[in-house]
Amino acid sequence: MAIEVEINGEKRAVRDDATIAALLTELGVAAERTAVERNGRIVRRGEHGTTRVAPGDRIEIVTLVGGG
Amino acid sequence: MASESRVPSSERDEPLVLRDVALKSRLLVGTGKYASFDLMRDALEISGTDCVTVAVRRVNLDRNKGPSLLDFVDPARYTLLPNTAGCFDAATAIRTAELAREVLGTNLVKLEVLGDPKTLLPDPLGTLEATKELVKQGFSVLVYCSDDPRLAVHLAEAGATSVMPAGSPIGSGQGVLNPNAIRILLELVQVPVIIDAGVGTASDVAFAMELGAAGVLLNTAIAGARDPLRMAAAMRDACRAGRNAFLAGRIERKLYANASSPLEGVIEATRK
């Protein structure tokens, strides 16, 4: 079954049993240069495989870019 | 880069110590606004900097296959200083710092809590609030702030590793607008003071260092110059020149002339 979550401000349909790790794989994002936040709290890299998304989750996936 | 052994003893200097980080160069350089990653890498190299700032942003989920900043900045070579640029409240800045720590495994953060998008002036209350929280969380907080000396005292007392007053608004190129405030700030604050923002050209860097700043942080002045590589060299030299002038101790300003050549022994004036 699919559920709706918000990733980087956009609504997306994902599998209801998806882990953060599965989500990153599906999106083609490498975990090592990114950080993930779920509903305002960091999901540490070591917890990506065990943390599952829930309907309505707000997920932020960030990386580093040029800045001053 | 000049190794320490090749620096003449008359020009030796202490490193800039920011808690557990020791920087040989007192110039900190941003990685934003370069025309290409190649140009950025070369400019950083020429500037001689040991510490570069980076920003935290959402991954573009539609196209994230291209080269990334970290392909061009070697973390073994540079201390990476993530910023909280673009945050307009303490809570968002704190979350951004936590995300940066998760990406890099660093406890360093350049804290920015800004007031509004037009002026990009630092919000003093939000900045102090975020400083306290991040210090509590174990971050080494380098705080972008205004040149208000009393605010700087509060930030230092809150545990900031460094206070970083703006010389003038971010990206404005106006230089150090209120040197007297910076002078007072430098007297009141015991932590390293880094002039952050507002640099337009090399003399601004030299001037900031002559005032006694521990370092200067800049980005646009190099990235936006017509020839960023040459400007990177100018900034490197200006930082060293200003630092040496500060350490050397300038002469007093006097109203009247003071001859450099002896007045004694001048030949008799021509008779009319």
Element layout with pairings:
The complex is a heterodimer of chains A (68) and B (272).
Chain A: E1 2-7, E2 10-15, H1 20-27, E3 35-38, E4 41-43, E5 58-66
Parallel strand pairs in A: 1-5
Antiparallel strand pairs in A: 1-2, 3-4, 3-5
Chain B: E1 16-18, E2 21-23, E3 27-30, H1 37-47, E4 51-58, E5 79-82, H2 90-104, E6 108-111, H3 124-136, E7 140-145, H4 149-157, E8 162-165, H5 179-188, E9 194-196, H6 202-211, E10 215-218, H7 220-223, H8 228-248
Helix pairs in contact in B: 1-8, 2-3, 4-5, 6-8
Number of helices of chain A: 1
> N-to-C SSE series of chain A?
EEHEEE
Class by alpha and beta content of chain B? alpha/beta
How far apart are the termini of chain A? 44 Å
Secondary structure tally: strands of chain B: 10
Residue share in helix of chain B: 25-40%
What is the oligomeric state here? heterodimer
Widest beta sheet: strand line-up of chain A: 2-1-5-3-4
* Beta-strand residue fraction of chain A: 35-45%
- The largest beta-sheet of chain B arranges its strands as 5-4-3-10-9
H and E string of chain B? EEEHEEHEHEHEHEHEHH
Count of separate DSSP helical elements of chain B: 8
- Biggest sheet features of chain B: 5 strands, parallel
Low-confidence stretches of chain A: none
Describe what this molecule looks like in 3D:
The complex is a heterodimer of chains A (68) and B (272). With 68 residues, chain A is mainly β. Helices cover 12% and strands 41% of the residues of chain A. Chain A contains 1 helix and 5 strands, in the order ββαβββ. Chain A has a 5-stranded mixed β-sheet with strand order 2-1-5-3-4, with no helix packed on it. The radius of gyration of chain A is 12 Å and the shape is globular. Chain B has 272 residues and is of the alpha/beta class. Chain B contains 8 helices and 10 strands. In chain B, α4 runs parallel beside α5 (179-188) and α6 packs parallel to α8 (228-248). Chain B is globular. The termini of chain B are far apart. At the A-B interface, β3 and β5 of A face β4 and α2 of B. β5 of chain A pairs antiparallel with β4 of chain B, so a sheet runs across the interface.
